[in-house]
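Example with several molecule types.
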Amino acid sequence: MTSVPLSPRSASSLRWPVLGGLALAVFLAGFLLPGYLQGGYLQSLLNNGLITGVMALCVAFIMHQCGLVLFGIAAYYGLAAYACAILINSFGLSAMAAAGGALLVTLTAAFLVGAIVIRVKPLAFMMICLSLAELMRHLVALPSLRRTTGGSDGLLFMPEGRVLGIDAMDLLDTAQVWPLIWTATWVIAGLFLIVASSHFGVRLRAIKENEERMRFSGFDTYWPRVFAFTGVGLAAGIAGVIQALASGLASPEMFSIITSTNALLAAITGGVSSVIGPVAGGVIYTWAISEFGALGYSQLFTGIAVILVMLFIPKGILHPLRLLRRKGGRA
Amino acid sequence: MIPTLILNALAVSSLYIMMASGLALIFGLRRVMNFGHGAIYMVGAYLGYTIASGMNFWAALLIVPLLMAGLGVLLELAVLRPLEKRQQIEVALITFGIGIVIAQVVIRIYGGMPLSVTAPRMLASSVKIFGADYPVYRLFITVVGLCSVIALAVWLNTTRTGMFVRAVSHAPDISSMMGINANRLSLLISMLSTAFAGLAGVLVGPYLSIDPGMDVAMIITCMIVVVIGGTGSIWGAIFAALILGFVQTFGTVYLHEISVLLPYIMLVGILVWRPQGLNFGVSAE
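Resulting structure tokens for the full complex:
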């Protein structure tokens, strides 16, 4: 029996099942990680890294699909965390109900903000989003709201009940919260991939390329972008709720410019067109900030990283390699 | 009470006007939103503190804007000019990074504690206005701020260079075809913008405290002013700064702590009404 070389077509038809199988294997293997790491620094680093990674995914999605720089993702991340903490502390809700309520609050807020900010020019959009995160930071630190929001110290809370089958108190343990963070990252990345390859994603990118032409062609250019913004706000809210449940704390620092900047940096460095890049970027930046933070240089690091990334790799770290490969292909 | 509040509002507005008009001028010329503008203001305030402590306040008022104009040359030659082909948002983020680095260096040098500058003796007294004592120093801020903006307006509207600045802001390509050297103008505007930020920094010393968070607070306020005024519209920015100063001052008295939220509420309110901002006169976008 002679072996038949694989035709390009059969190779390409094998690509997706192989990639899918590999992704499934990595996803399942991820659940074994806490057994190897046994809690501690590395586990906590990975948890925080993936949370930043999810925010980076959100920034990357809106940047790639809509051409907008969401420089204030911390607003939705922090809002969800505070909403969850307030619903538990002030309304006595169980952790699961509070998480659901917090996501509903974030969804509504993101929709209302999106309906306003989508109408403005990209640069103004960036500045307004940043300003809104600052608004939230001031709002939660108001002395008169101290009983509800905890003021500038942040809001501690003790969650009760179960969240997706895990006891809420167990979520405070870095190893036990890992399955939740890991699954949320995959679900959000998967949903973003599905939306990007759907008709809706194509329409978003077409609006980004030429909004006027799309409008003249009879397409609505406003609501798709509002919905994309809302979805991104909700995804950042999921990261915020998980972070709140994992730490039992919602703090004004969650709204800080540095939180937003790190997510933006992770997204740009990893490449906004990919889903793996921003998540990996989130983990790497979290590690770097933790290392530099120990020396007291975390903000200085962020500043230098912004300059270097925007100067040398504004299209992501893999972009120069892709260009080289394309040139190699042509040659 | 009301006349005092109006004077206070004018003092705050003068600072915002100096900052926002500089930001809008650079945007008009280079289409760059300088996110590092708050850090330049912070450097101005801290340098003002050093010079006022070592020499005197008047020396600081003269030297700091000159030093900051030098920083403007550096900004133009090392950042804005080499990056003029880059996308607007990329350059904005680079200036943001530069701002963080500058602020961190300042904090390393001066530490994280708030500092205060004493007003010179002749401005440290108060005068009676409408039966109430009013600090002379605040009047001085208002006079310096308003005089600078009037000088800017006169320069923009009556001189040949001012006309070129307006022309490049309005139509950069056509101005370039008509032989206007945008690079030379941009250098001048960068110097002017950073000198204004430095001046605002020195003036703020005896009025408010100098602290490590002052750069972020000011750049956020400036962004709100610039967006409300209509990105790139100099007169829009000046008008928005004036309104914001009044809203904040009256808000502090009548709404107390809620007043910190007022600029943001104003921003959202105006954007719902006019997504392009107030946008008086020439807009760059």
